UniProtKB/TrEMBL annotation:
Entry-linked PANTHER family: CYTOCHROME P450 FAMILY 1 SUBFAMILY B MEMBER 1, STEROID 17-ALPHA-HYDROXYLASE/17,20 LYASE
Protein known as: Cytochrome P450, family 1, subfamily C, polypeptide 2
Gene Ontology biological process: hormone biosynthetic process; progesterone metabolic process
Cofactor: heme
Protein family per UniProt: Belongs to the cytochrome P450 family.
Listed transmembrane segments: 6-27
Residues involved in heme binding: 432
Length: 509
């Protein structure tokens, strides 16, 4: 009998252990009502080690196994991942309010002096803030034919300058990487709108600032560990240094914006709206209201607009140039179309857009194929909600996998116009407010660069489509050369500045 007696404590211990495990799982299920499907989450790190280099692709693979709505755990956060057109539209459009929140991530609080609209949770004040940002963009880009023209001319001038810079960088058949010049060009468009001022491509300080901002998306992109493993902040490690750099670059960028806005405050004239900064000062600084927005939100709005309009637009053109150089046969077709529709004596304009549908198709296909904003800025649920029959509790972080929508096999006929089905500006209450100006900008840059130049890769470089991951996917370093096609056409800047919109700003109309 002795061997049996020895086994009893071990047996009891095993039972106790199993019972506890069951109890823990039961309590957890109870808390989350019906637990969402998803991969097993390891202690401490959760699924952080499984994300890989390209989390959006991992998420799409997991959707094949667990369905379009599932849960992962990153560090100490449960996160719901939404994939595919149906689930994402059900969430963002049918349940727009429930999915309009943002999580209270520490990295979000470092943006725009904590007064960002983009990185703020859903609230009455946020609604007002977003409305102001939205109507400011409209007032300076599409409110009437005069502002439309002024905006367009500004982009044209920036694009023709870019052509000259590319040609200089290509002197004697040299190859160059266009990334940085594209950032300066996109920054100039939005800075001209915001401050009535553009910067030279050789402005060292401005270039340095933009170079730092380039890293912004790496920390803020979905799957970044800064926000889900707070304990990583307590000892030196790569995540902590990345976060410290992130805080520094936000502080420097916000300082830059703050100085510009202060200059505007000093010279503010309620009768004359010089630019977006004036318009926003006029609404937030000068109008007493009970919406809770304070002076700091003025800078917050301006820095949101500059930040959002910079990386996205330049990354779009960056991909377009890469794909043009990679597919010379398509480039030739586009050249022929431009020469037929526009001719060689003038530059393409927005009015040509309807006759240049193949250009727009190329832009949309670039957006679909690269899905260069693969996952939106993280959302958070503002109340309990059910998607595809699955319960998601209030205050859950939600990743919206736009890439998965653009890489689903198309339903029905392939002839169908797919351009409206590209998801890159998100949808619902948090959808991008700059999509209209982004489309005009990208079209004009693309059309003018292509009308003026041909782009070629070097014979021994096989252009790779690999990229770096972050809020935006950026192509790896590649080199191209530009050759002038025919005569160089210029747009004149001096004529442009007298055309800046001088409108009295009526915010809520
Ligand atoms: C090709 C260019 C662009 C793309 C692909 C793009 C895409 C996006 C995406 C995916 C979001 C996040 C939506 C979400 O969280 O669900 C967003 C938000 C936003 N975008 Fe854009 N964007 C572009 C250009 C611009 C431009 C030019 C501006 C303004 C000048 C702008 C202003 C904003 C703002 C302010 C938000 C925050 C909205 C909010 O949180 O309520 N974007 N954009
Ligand atoms: C966001 O705001 C909603 C109210 O609109 C609130 O219920 C929710 O708890 C907030 N979420 C976070 C993460 O702070
Ligand atoms: C691109 O990615 C593929 C597979 O992901 C890899 O095999 C290849 O080496 C990468 N190319 C470059 C240039 O990094």
């Amino acid at each position: 009998g002795l061997p049996f007696l020895v086994k009893i404590p071990a047996l009891v211990a095993s039972f106790v252990f199993l019972f506890c495990l069951e109890a823990c799982l039961w309590v957890r299920n109870f808390r989350l009502k019906r637990r969402l499907p998803g991969p097993f989450a390891w202690p401490v790190v959760g699924n952080a080690m499984q994300l890989g280099q390209m989390p959006h692709i991992t998420f799409a693979k997991l959707a094949k196994k667990y369905g379009n709505v599932y849960q992962i755990r990153l560090g100490c956060s449960d996160i719901v991942v939404l994939n595919g057109d149906r689930a994402i539209r059900e969430a963002l459009i049918l349940h727009s309010t429930e999915f309009a929140g943002r999580p209270n991530f520490v990295s979000f609080q470092a943006v725009s002096g904590g007064k960002s609209m983009t990185f703020t949770n859903y609230s009455k004040q946020w609604k007002m803030h977003r409305k102001i940002a939205q109507s400011t963009i409209r007032a300076f880009s599409s409110a009437n034919s005069q502002t439309k023209k002024a905006f367009e001319q500004q982009v044209v001038a920036e694009a023709t300058e870019l052509v000259e810079i590319f040609l200089k960088l290509s002197a004697q058949g040299q190859y160059f990487n266009p990334a940085h010049e594209l950032t300066v060009a996109a920054a100039n468009v939005i800075c001209a709108l915001c401050f009535g001022k553009r910067y030279g491509h050789d402005d060292v300080e401005f270039r340095a600032l933009l170079q730092k901002l380039d890293k912004f998306g790496e920390t803020i992109g979905a799957g970044s560990l800064v926000d889900v493993m707070p304990w990583l902040q307590s000892f030196p490690n790569p995540v902590r240094s990345m976060f410290n750099n992130f805080k520094d670059l936000n502080q420097e960028f916000f300082g830059f914006v703050h100085n510009k806005v202060e200059e505007h405050r000093d010279t503010f004239d309620p009768e004359v709206t010089r630019d977006m900064s004036d318009a926003i000062i006029g609404v937030i600084d000068k109008v007493d209201s009970d919406n809770g927005l304070t002076k700091g939100h003025t800078e917050g709005t301006v820095s949101d607009l500059i930040g959002a309009g910079l990386d996205t637009v330049s990354t779009a053109i960056h991909w377009i140039l890469l794909l043009l150089a990679k597919h010379p046969e398509i480039q030739t077709k586009l050249h022929e179309l431009l020469d037929k529709v526009v001719g060689r004596n003038r530059l393409p304009s927005v009015d040509d857009r309807s006759s240049l549908a193949y250009l727009d198709a190329f832009i949309y296909e670039t957006m679909r194929f690269t899905s260069f904003v693969p996952i939106t800025i993280p959302h958070s649920t503002t109340s309990d909600v059910t998607i595809e029959g699955l319960h998601i509790p209030k205050d859950t972080v939600v990743f919206i996998n736009q890439w998965s929508v653009n890489h689903e096999p198309p339903e029905g006929s392939l002839d169908k116009d797919l351009t409206n089905n590209v998801m890159i500006f998100s949808a619902g209450k948090r959808r991008c407010i700059g999509n209209q100006i982004a489309k005009v900008e990208i079209f004009l840059f693309f059309a003018i660069l292509l009308h003026q130049c041909s782009f070629e890769k070097s014979a021994h470089e096989d252009l790779s489509l690999n990229c770096t991951y972050g809020l935006t996917l950026k192509p790896l370093n590649y080199k191209i050369t530009a050759t002038l096609r025919g005569e160089l056409l210029k747009a004149v800047w001096s004529q442009q500045s007298s055309n800046l919109p001088r409108l009295i700003y009526l915010p809520m109309c």
